[in-house]
Amino acid sequence: MANVRDITTMCKEGQVQEAYNLAKADLAAIPTDVWKQRAVGWALYYMIKADSEVGDYAKLLEHIDELKSLDQLTIANDSMIFDNVQFQIANFIKNHIFLTDIEASSKLSTLFSKLKDYEFKSSKGHSFLLQTILKFENWSEMPNFFDWWNLDNLTTEDYTPYINQKGQKIMTLAERAFIANSKALLRLNDLGRIEEFLPKMDNLMNNHKEMMYPGYFYGKLLLALGSNSDEALKVIIPFARKKATEFWVWQLLSDVLTNDEDKQLACLLRAVHCRTQETFLGKVHIKLATLYIKRGLLNSARFHIDAVTRCYASQGWRLPNEIDCWIHQPWINSTTPDYKDPIDYMAITDAILCDGAEECIAVVTYVEQNTHKSFIIYGKEKRTVQKFRFKVNVGKALRLHYITDSEGRMKVLSSTSVHLPSDLDYAKYVEGNIDKRDDKDFAFLKLGSINCFVSPNIVKKYELKNGDKIKSLIVYDYNKKKNSWNWVCVNVKK
After folding, report:
1. Which residues contact 364 (CB under 8 A, 6 or more apart)?
2. What CA–CA distance (Å, rounded) separates 362 from 400?
């Protein structure tokens, strides 16, 4: 009689069939002996491994069924066998089931039916199985698979991004899994499951703020439950701030803001103006045309109808029903496409992004000519560097809406020029006399007990002399050399 070690040694040496025959003979003598079943189980694992490598689907199922018939084996006591088998099933799916395979869905369902009687714990095999399944996002049993797989089994490694051979940072398995489950639940539209899943998504967002996409799908799930727009916006807007250049973010926001037609229109316009392939924008164009027709702006509607028509014709696609209906309407031939936007969509959408953001008045103290980086003061002892989309000069006052990221850095959401308020405690216009020694290239502006520093550059630029009466914008700025905050002149009027 052979023990488990004997059987596994023979299998590793390539004598799989011989090992299996020997283990089966021993089992026949004592069918209920757990160790005899384990010996057969290990032989079957090596057979399953061979089936997986060559892609023999029929043999794979046969050997899995035989393994399952060994009634003394359990996940608790024989986890190594079952984890290894799970890994080989995943390997078969990865290498031998393809999206183009018309039987892909039925094969997946059959393999899943073999596994779902067992409750696996976290392991490399369990994670590998998840990874291989994710590419089949339209598989009808995806929600059931996630229920069985249990996202609580994600390992620390599953939450770690990795770099592929091209040097690209790949989204973590955990984030991909949560997104895939969200998509599956949205397709199924099972409100009970969605409600049950939301706390898990919320927990993910709270504990993994570095992940970009869960907020988007959390918003989609909220919308599926019929949550009000205010609740949905609280979740979606922080995500939208990070992905404001992506058209689908604005498309989602347009779905949320259906009770405010101007905001909905603005979001759709921002979506259509994002840099992306025209083939992705069909639904956005159709929504815009719908709103324009509702408003009687038929020329504007015609522009977006034509955009869809051209795009779909170039791809050989069948026209959407809405477009096909509109192009046969009597009014279509009496209109002229108008590409102009009827509203200031950037101002409206920027305001949406700024909802709940911090606000401040900033003053530009210095601009690097080469990099166009602007040094700004935006509060008492608050100083940072920003790049603006428009040209700014020293002394420019700006109203900023901003958020602070996890590392404490300012991210400007919007910026507009303003007149400097008179009540700021870190920037103000003053009048005073220059105090300058002949042997120094710098000076001070006398303001009662305050000596405001005037840099050599300003002294030279304005040809300042001792006793000159000037008007100046001063700011409470940081002196790196002295490691202190002091009042300094930013510009001068004699």
Report:
1. 374, 375, 376, 392, 393, 394, 395, 396, 398
2. 7
Which residues, given as ranges, of the chain have pLDDT below 50?
none
Spatial contact of 267 and 353, defined as CB atoms under 8 Å apart: no
d(CA 421, CA 283) in angstroms, rounded, equals: 45
Q: Rounded distance, CA 229 to CA 395, Å? A: 40
Beta carbons within 10 angstroms of residue 462's beta carbon: 18
**Rounded to an integer, what distance in angstroms lies between the CA atom of residue 76 and that of residue 87?**
17
Counting Cβ atoms within 10 Å, is residue 490 exposed (0-12), middle (13-18) or buried (19+)?
Answer: buried
Other C-beta atoms closer than 10 Å to the C-beta of 465 total 11
Question: Tokens representing 56?
Answer: 């023999």
Q: How do residues 343-399 score in pLDDT, each as one tens digit?
A: 999 989 988 998 888 899 999 998 888 888 999 999 999 999 998 878 888 889 999
Copy the structure tokens of residue 178: 């949560």
| Separation in Å, CA 329 to CA 283, 298, 324 | 20, 11, 9
Length of the chain counted residue by residue: 494
Distance CA 460, CA 472 (A): 15
- Cα separation, 257 vs 263, in Å, equals 7
Phi, psi for 234 (deg, rounded to 5): -55, -35
pLDDT in tens, 35-69: 999 999 999 999 999 999 999 999 999 999 999 99
Of the candidates 75, 47, 82, the residue with the CA atom closest to the CA atom of residue 62: 47
pTM above 0.70, yes or no: no
